[in-house]
Design brief:
By secondary structure, the chain is α/β, with parallel strands linked by helices. It has helices at residues 15-27, 49-52, 55-69, 87-95, 98-101, 118-127, 159-188; strands at residues 2-7, 32-37, 73-79, 105-111, 135-143. Helices cover 42% and strands 17% of the residues. Bound molecules: flavin mononucleotide. Flavin mononucleotide binds at residues 9, 11, 14-16, 79-83, 111-114, 116, 146.
């Protein structure tokens, strides 16, 4: 099983990337993963060249499309920025969609240095699934006070929150893998391939 981990922060040395790397290590026990970070904005903002298949865009998108297409499930990690999902992550959902992520399960993990984290969960659930047909699990993980958990140096962690988040992530990832097995059957049935209903709604 292969799982894509998308780290949605544009910041260098972000807490989202720290969480993504922890998830990658956790998954390594029995799965392969592909971590893609939006650090430093590797993806230009969408323009019509994407739909026109411009070479500039093909060069950028093709290797990422191949990676996403080969994955059975996704973990979408988003920080809360001014109560929102970062623009780069919303751009990601313009550039990639049903061909790569359709009817694949995804776990949302949101990150806040304070007590935020619920707005980006709501935003992703409301607005990133319609045409991509990504299937968000009913489970999600909100990591509050993120600087106090998942640090390599145990002295930097709040012991109680750290062990809770590690266990919660492990459990949620185990659920994600079961959904990955189940939804493969749905995609393999062929029912999701439909020319008439290309977009959601
Ligand atoms: C532009 C910007 C806006 C932010 N707005 C919020 C916010 O609305 N709520 C919140 O809980 N944290 C906010 N934060 C702090 C983030 O929670 C914090 O940076 C955390 O480490 C997660 O982001 P990161 O993955 O970029 O490190 C904001 C950070 C940035 C850079």
């Amino acid at each position: 099983m292969k799982i894509a981990i998308i780290s949605g922060s544009h910041r260098c040395n972000s807490q989202s990337l720290k969480v993504a790397q922890h998830i990658q290590k956790t998954l390594a026990v029995d799965s392969t993963s592909w971590l893609y970070s939006l650090e430093d904005n590797p993806l230009p903002l969408w323009d019509e060249g994407v739909w026109d298949g411009e070479q500039k865009w093909l060069d950028i998108l093709t290797p990422i499309r191949e990676q996403l297409s080969s994955c059975d499930a996704l973990v979408i990690i988003t920080p809360e920025w001014h109560g929102q999902v970062p623009a780069g992550l919303k751009n990601f959902f313009l550039l990639f969609g049903k061909n790569e992520m359709g009817h694949k399960p995804a776990l949302i993990v949101s990150v806040s240095s304070g007590i935020g984290g619920s707005y980006p969960v709501a935003e992703l659930r409301m607005s990133s699934y319609k045409n991509s047909r990504i299937c968000y699990l009913p489970e999600h993980v909100i990591i509050r006070d993120v600087e106090t958990v998942l640090n390599d140096n145990a002295a930097d962690n709040n012991e109680r929150s750290d062990s809770y988040i590690r266990e919660r992530l492990q459990w949620s990832l185990a659920i994600l893998k079961e959904y990955a097995i189940a939804l493969k059957g749905v995609r393999d049935s062929g029912i999701t391939q439909n020319e008439q209903f290309g977009n959601g709604m």
